């Protein structure tokens, strides 16, 4: 397929999201326009223009489509101008009066975006566009009112229309139109037209005979009717002459008409220059390439060639694009200005940021259910499970959620043959507590503060674990980029699109099936994603807002890390916190403060200001950047290896300088320090595990067998000495076997057999595979991310093909970018989905989308899709129709530009 064919295919695949795609017929665009200008000239949709002089209110046009009412009502003042215009679109009333725009009785500023309509500057005009129908109302404000207004419909409606504009395809009779359109009002009058000789009219129409021919006398009559009594009002007679001149469109007339009629060109503010035919949307710093091709031309005020409007400042100044300023997190940066953090520096370059590579470690963050992968993809875990957080060739990190509450209760780390467990504010090495630090063949593990434990390993991976008030995990990837790392943290190859690679090797589309593929054993229920407690929700919205305050304590980090993700997480955390809301809030705020510290921004004493102070036990003191070097009694026995470590600053309690922590967790002078002892032994005795009575004795868990085995399984009793028996399942083939599990009595598949996804015992060759929550038989194929994958021995074996990126939009504002990031916003504007005219390049296509709301609900029912090709043709997909608009100079004969034959 050519690029353009591909684009159209793309467009229509979008269409298929909201309906069955039938055979499309391409239609040329048809425009129906009705105008009113001067002191009462009406040019209806069809038929001859006429004049009406009245201060009565009139329906200009009115019709119903899909049970929605559309109407435009006008009233002229004694100055001849329109002094009141009321536009109703589906029960939303817009009133134009005294130069103001009132929507539902509220004054609005431009651009204004509403579900049903948009109002924006359109050249020197103002335009209201309906998003329900291809229907626009455009007007020109002058001192004292509106001197020109027109209504445009870009489709023929199968409906009855009334008003001064008449019907779309039937010419009405003037007197009938006026009689039927007048609205009830006792005080107003309709005056009979007065025909008085006028020398400007006479002179003008003497020159237009050739061009207007038979119509000349008709327009000459309108001229006299229009100008009578307003001989000195340019606002009244200039739009009339301009309209006739543009109908003639002869260069001779264009040259003389303004001089002859003494109609001056409109004045433009600031540096802007009037253009008779220029871009309706002028290029500005924030939007230097508005609508790349189909740039509608109209009367406008624009910048001189090569310059753009500096809309970041007042005064309508035009500057070269290269001098535009940039914005980040709500702050403006001048051209050439740099914003930098510890990990990256970005320079503002003509309105665009140019950023360096990230030179910090790629870090995976797991804060409860909130995960950021090494490559920066952010998602939320679906269930409270045991998960593989990350695993490499010779290490694995496993997290375990609490059964009842929403936090991680335990982290297990296996480094080669060494096993570390982090839980209950304790670090255990092979079952023994590490009170302070531990050095072994593969790892150095030590407490940095009362809250944080640091782990350095010899095998490339380093991490920090926050032990209280909840366990959070911060894992730094090895220096070299690697595809060999797997798990919830994804791989580490600077590409977010493959971060949802499951344990069986296929890339999933969403977080749930991906995360579940890395779960081990049983889960303890869902993690809620919405607020069910209104009180918590209100509290959360009020308190989490401190993150966004532009002058608040967190503001200094705004230029480095946007708050949106942390703000949302803060709210979700509080909503679902079964315990203290304040603790949820403090954890949420600490998460942002920690991320800021990671890029070198120290927030300051945010805990005091937000009421999140931490109380330290005994005589320890709190610090936002705790140091560990020589701060414990144990460190005095020799050289403290922690003194040489270049770790991130962490917060927490510790001993002030000059004092040392003893075994009683008290800071004391070194004279009072005691010596090391190792302790911490798990208590033996009877316990109940998963409803089974067990007995912990001599480090061995003995459980009573309780078997009722089916599907070819056999009963295994731990008391019979099979301590290492593990259920072999097709699902587990790729999962780690490293964690030391206690024996559990129960039903197991016989040796050399595996439990498949249906619970049957099968041979390895018959093992099933899982994708998107569905089980597949051995040999079956699926396609995901351009890979064709075959199920073999419980694993997906994939053949990769070059992958075209896919960008999607569906439903109520769900978007997926080419690099697979999902996001959601209920924007009400027309958005550019994709275009190839970026920076200074002139592109070949653009695709814009706009949600079309349902009649009653504020939901998206369908979507308008506008495809521009090379500035030659615009295809609009709307209401299951493709409407084609040919641009000037293109005849539509060039078949190579696009094709819809494959439909
Ligand atoms: Ca990746």
User: Can you count the beta strands?
Assistant: 65
- Assembly level: single chain
Q: Helices and strands: which structural class?
A: alpha+beta
- The helix content is 10-25%
Terminal CA distance:
13 Å
What does the largest sheet look like? 8 strands, antiparallel
Radius of gyration, CA atoms, in whole angstroms: 36 Å
Strand order of the largest sheet: 4-3-2-16-15-14-13-12
Mean pLDDT across residues: 81
Query: Segments where pLDDT lies below 50 for 5+ residues?
Result: 1-23, 676-683, 720-724
- Determine the number of helices (DSSP H or I, runs of at least 4 residues): 12
Task: Describe the model.
By secondary structure, the protein is α+β, with helices and mostly antiparallel strands. Among the domains are: 3-25 and 807-897, no CATH class; 31-191; 199-261; 273-322, Laminin; 326-355, no CATH class; 685-766, no CATH class; 769-800, no CATH class. It is 14% helix and 34% strand. The chain contains twelve helices and 65 strands. The strands form 18 sheets. Strands 4-3-2-16-15-14-13-12 form an eight-stranded antiparallel β-sheet. Strand 25 (345-349) and strand 26 form a beta hairpin. Helix 6 (234-248) packs antiparallel against helix 7 (251-261). The longest helix is centred in the middle third of the chain and has 18 residues, at 581-598. The two termini are 13 Å apart. The site of calcium ion has 8 residues, from loops.
